[in-house]
Amino acid sequence: ITGTGWYRLKLDLPEKYEHYAVEFDGIMNHAEVYVNGIKAAYRPYGYSSFSVDITPFINRDAENNMIVKVNSLDKTSRWYPGAGLYRPVRLVMCGESYVAYQGIWVNPEYHMEDGSAAVHITCSVVGKGKAVHTIFDAEGRAIAGCEGKNAEVFLESAEVWDVDSPKLYTLMTEVFVGETCTDKLFTRFGIRKAVFDRDAGFFLNGKQRKIQGVCMHHDCGMFGAAYQKDVIQRRLTALREMGCNALRTTHNPPCPATLDLCDELGIMVLDEAFDEWKIPKAVNGYANEFEEWAERDLTDMIHRDRNHPCVILYSIGNEIPDQTLPQGRDICRKLTSICHREDPTRPVTCGFNRPDAAVKNGLTEEVDIVGLNYSAREYQRYRKEHPDWTMIAT
Questions:
Q1: Residues 101-150: pLDDT tens digits?
Q2: Distance from C-alpha of 352 to C-alpha of 68, rounded to nearest angstrom
Q3: Is the Cβ–Cβ distance between 236 and 262 less than 8 Å?
Q4: What is the DSSP string of 234-275?
Q5: Does the global pTM surpass 0.90?
Q6: N or C terminus of the chain with fewer C-beta within 10 Å?
């Protein structure tokens, strides 16, 4: 489907709230959002999730309307990406002080020696409200609490997230102005320790695990590209029953609801950002947007996905043509540094299908784990020539 599409919606906004926002999990693509005729946002990358603060544009005493314009171009990728509002949309309403969009980061530190965990909480609050946090276990029991925009909770006995037993906790964050709760947000998280060892392989919670993964595009096959939970859940469950324990989001940020399912099913995820950098694979592909939008899109993906225990590493690119040029190293270094800046707890990889060129141009030196595509016959050679590499078959 290509061409221009228009969505028009009358907004029913209760007057008792101070802040209104609309969250989009993805719009395919080149989306423009208008509120009461005023352009409120633009987002070109169809796989990025974003929020639009509509508060400055609404009429308190009159009807409110929202329009989303989508410009779905031909030849934007090497597969069928879908078009339009293909992922969930939410209206968010809260008081004068609230948690910023993607403003919660739960970063657990698991201590395998004694089974304890330190849960670090970073909370970005808009306004002068106070953040109060409560942690619930998998059975819904409140087990710990703390306050503040930067807080920590210590759990003496932590239940870990693992592929065989994916235990999940829930963080409830409430924002108070005086005695009034102005916002409430629930964030699921898991406690686990993932280690990539260049000699011994991958370890999850101290146990060696073979990563048995597949690449999966976001669409639902014959059911279309719009996200359908039942279809994705059936697919992931079937893969799990086959022995699959890992998923690569080919080749872009997935729908966040897919990561929710992977959290629940115990499926590890290689979270991939881009299929193109500056050199295009498709005439109207992401290369046209890369220079202006790559840092923001990658940062937003990490902020959105870093609470998911299923995500074990980030990929900054798949078979990027820039790997064949010297300037590709600078791009690779920049993207890796963004990942390290926004989430230093997870390693970064890139799927190199021209690994000799990536070596020659220095890209393999800029990632934590060297991803190799279609190079199985060369594993032993690379291992011998680069004993300092940690490698993964991407």
A1: 999 999 999 999 999 999 999 999 999 999 999 999 999 999 999 999 99
A2: 37
A3: yes
A4: HHHHHHHHHT--EEEETTS---HHHHHHHHHHT-EEEEE--S
A5: yes
A6: N
